[in-house]
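Narrative summary of target 7.
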Amino acid sequence: MKNAHLLLIVMTMMVMSGCSVIGGIFKAGAVVGVIAVIVVVLVIIWLISLFRGK
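Modeled conformation, tokenized:
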């Protein structure tokens, strides 16, 4: 019975650390996605201003 509790604790610790890693990856992905969208919008605005200036 003692081994079963130890196994449960070890499995829980492994799953929780995996969730933390996945959460970090998604947070980083969200930040990179937002930055990419901002850059694309700025490039589009810059291109429109180039053509309107002529």
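The longest helix spans residues 2-53.
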